[in-house]
Amino acid sequence: MEKDIQLCLMEEDDRELFILDNQEAFNYGALEEFGCRDNHFEEDGQIISRETIEQSIDHGKAYRIILEEKKVGGAVIKVDGEKGSLDLLFVSPDAHGKGVGYAAWCQVEKLHPEVKIWETMTPYFEQRNIHFYVNRCGFHIVEFFNKFHPDPNEPEADVKEFDEQFPDGMFRLEKRID
User: Fold this and answer.
1) 8 A C-beta contact, residue 145 and residue 170
2) 5-176: what CATH class?
3) Domain locations along the chain
4) Neighbouring-strand partners of residue 83
5) How would you class 131 by CB atoms within 10 Å of its CB: exposed for 0-12, middle for 13-18, buried for 19 or more?
6) N or C, where is the chain less crowded by C-beta within 10 Å?
7) What are the b/e assignments for 138-170, b being 16+ CB within 10 Å?
8) For 44-55, what is each residue's pLDDT tens digit?
């Protein structure tokens, strides 16, 4: 069942709340997985840093996910012709398990019918995300970045930091649309 959600471009005066909502959603997933012993934080107390979110917003298009006139999440995408990148997708913990993320993803695809290949990444430990992208949205795991196979797009200086934050690695996923 597809939820009646809307994707609306993020307004600049919503930027701070967008960042905080994103951090809350990512922290919830990590704390649910690892509890208080989690060591995957980018900055003090945050799984995803403000800097990472801001860079994503600044280099992509940020959308708010709206359900029944309430902001329940967000997404940041980049589109370059037939290629698209899903940089961020988050749903408020209060709206988890209600089909909101899937409905939002369907809206992203409808907004960009020109995109034939979508790409995203998720950490190895995020089983909920892996299930969502592979089993719900139709992505395929195409590459596994880890200490033996670092992401060739990451500067060497960031590889050590990446290995410390994600010692179990990251999956790169693709969805091809015919």
Assistant:
1) yes
2) alpha beta
3) 5-176
4) 80, 117
5) exposed
6) C
7) ebeeeeebbeeebbeeeeeeeeeebeebbeebb
8) 556 678 988 999
